[in-house]
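Discrete fold record:
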Amino acid sequence: MKYILLGLLALAGLSGTSGARAQVAPSTAIVSSLTNQCWDVVDYSKDDGAIIQLYPCTGTSNQSWAFQVYAFNAEAPMARIVNVNSGMCAAVESSNPASGAIGLRQHPCNTNDPLQQFTIEAPLRSVTFGTNTFPIPLVARHIVSVATHWCMKADATFYRPFEASGCGETGDQSTRWRMVGI
């Protein structure tokens, strides 16, 4: 399984190993599989604490993100997600989702801040050929907060990526994100 993920990450431009310095992937848009909208820093802001929203994809720098992959946790890459326009990292608002602060904001990158750490997981779907069943990674990924272990989720009415417990069923597109090259 680890080798499947490593191969997929290499194809997507993401790589990293434990103990190695962060590997930076080419910039990408993070697109909701549910709404087809992109992660977007409101008003091209470079301010600490600016809100990250879902917005129609425009290909602009406030929607461009780089993944700094720095480790593997349970065979999934751990990364900071850096906005190309501001140079700041995406961060969940709280390590306690029950507090109601469950959206994303940008903050200066801090390598020791678990609120800025995410795993990028490739959910699997079983495919059967004849009598053999194979796990096939889906193209759309889960982005999971290291601080809360909750998935980032899209909602057609909330207009912000937010945290939700559980990553949903295989057919649930609300917790799936595509990384699209810009």
